[in-house]
Amino acid sequence: MEIKNVKGNTFCIDTGMTYIPFYKINDEEIIMLDSGWKKEREGIDELLEKNNFKVVGIICSHAHIDHVGNNKYLKDKYNCVIAMSAYEALLCSSTVTLKVYYSNETLTEVTEHFGHMVCETDIMISNEQDKIYVCGIKFKILHTPGHSPSHMCIITPDDVAYIADALISYEVMAGAKMPYAYILREDLKSKAKLYDLECSEYVVAHKGIYNDITKLISDNINFYKNRAERVCAIIDDAMTMEEILKEVVKRFNIPVKSRYKYALIERMLRSNVEYLNEIGDIELNMDDGFLKYSRNSSSI
Ligand SMILES: [Zn+2]
Prior knowledge:
The chain is an alpha/beta fold. Helices cover 37% and strands 25% of the residues. GO terms for molecular function: hydroxyacylglutathione hydrolase activity; metal ion binding.
């Protein structure tokens, strides 16, 4: 793990897998943008200690396990304030509310896999808010729902935009068998919204630093649409969600060895299938008591 300077007082921790940006208020105090994955905790902890940093605030882009995994740990350690979108803050307020999101797992599984995401949020950010003050520092907010229900991009006082998961890098695109969006149609709208953003630097969580993201936005939109089209091509008859999943796992060569992985792939597939349904490429019908998706004749 290492620290990279992005611009001015904006830096990021390179965990290997992810960039976690932070804003340096002074030699000691920092505000983190996301807190990373639990697996990355030891490395992040070591890096913070080595640099004598004290985390005074965390602003979270969205409540995914690899972005809020150390919220509670860092809050307990530094007594820092946590700011998050109101909706995702409520999601992280207990394991029962987390189950709203992880609905295809039992409460016991949710507690076991995601229990460490539960944290107390001090500042709830509403969907209308376009800025936030944390420890007296102003950050601009751009709401980019879709990847998660209330995903947002955060712009530091150095004019560095943390894009988080609203875009993915070319390396991730190359390896992603099925990219994820909670609601793909909204996510594509949010990606298009990024064309209007004019910042000096852009940090993509998985993982890249860019000074121009115009091409990356177009390539992301095409990549996500193309993956959905590949799912569409698999639906060659009236198929249940489980039948589609079975085919996708086989044809995309996705290893699914646990119920946890199955639940994850199911969530990823569902967003693609719902998108195809929303844009009219497939339709959902009752067939002898089963819900089955089939391709619309115009899309074949
Ligand atoms: Zn995410």
